[in-house]
Prior knowledge:
Blueprint: H1 2-20, E1 30-39, E2 42-48, E3 59-65, H2 69-77, E4 83-85, E5 91-94, H3 100-114, E6 121-124, H4 134-148, H5 154-157, E7 163-170, E8 173-180, E9 186-188, H6 191-200, E10 206-211, E11 216-228, E12 233-246, H7 253-278, H8 285-293, E13 302-308
Parallel strand pairs: 1-4, 1-5, 5-6, 12-13
Antiparallel strand pairs: 1-2, 2-3, 7-8, 8-9, 10-11, 11-12
Helix pairs in contact: 6-7
Amino acid sequence: MAAGRKGRIAAALAAALLLTACGGTPLSQREVVRAVFFGEGRALLLLADADAPEGKTAYKTAEGRGATPAQALQDAAGQLDGTAFYGLMDVVGLPAGCGWEAAAGIGALLYREGKPAPELSVFLLQGDETAQNAGEIYESLQALEKSHGVHCGLQTLFAQEGLCALPARAGAGYGFALLPKGGEPALFTRPPAAQLAAVLCGQADKFSFTFAGGAARCRADAEATVLPQTDATRVQLHLQHLELDVLAEPMTEDSAAAALRGELLAAFAALRQTAQAQNSDPMHLRFWTAVQYGPAAAPAPPQLAILLE
């Protein structure tokens, strides 16, 4: 009898904790934030619409203004009927054209105020986000993660001191941005360069793009490893299940393979040149060199090796 009573009490306590989220605001009084898009002096919240018909997905928005991202976020949250709940947030958009300082400030703000889930993804925006298209943009970014295997969480964003590296909205695919502390941001918009940078920075595991002026298409699982050596730092690009589709003559499968290799080598050279100009290390070459040769060792010049597996 006592055991049965204890079981009922435990179940009641569990239900109470679930409804109040461990002593916080009851779930019925919470506004579930799915995404927040920051812009110049504003924050746009995308929220789940609790009044949507059963089985239907719908959103509502709240937009706030302020001199800082924190003020804009507070202003947007203050317009809600309930309390903003960030624990299920999937996407954060950083302002178009922002630099390291702005990205770092927003990241710290979200850690402090939002306490977002680890699954949260960060993208650099284009600046055309509105209340009318916020839901469409949110769903397109989620679809992009699945189709291209790209993901940048808050911790990934700050995986390296003095550099923020993250994917960016860009057409049907994505671009890739390097935001150095105190330096000029760089944005790779062409798919081969952007996707190679994402893979080499550890933020993607797939290739899916057209190249050679649209004459061929590439799909592959991609992974990067770094092998420090005394004369060169060997950056190994592992391509598995590679599929090359010829889309226009006179391209052939052999010439498509050669063109792909050429585009990847050119993209690697551009990434290397950008990192050198920024004095940044997006591929973590210093870390792997220190592991191999000790903390005082400097990386040898990087070289790309493309491995078909």
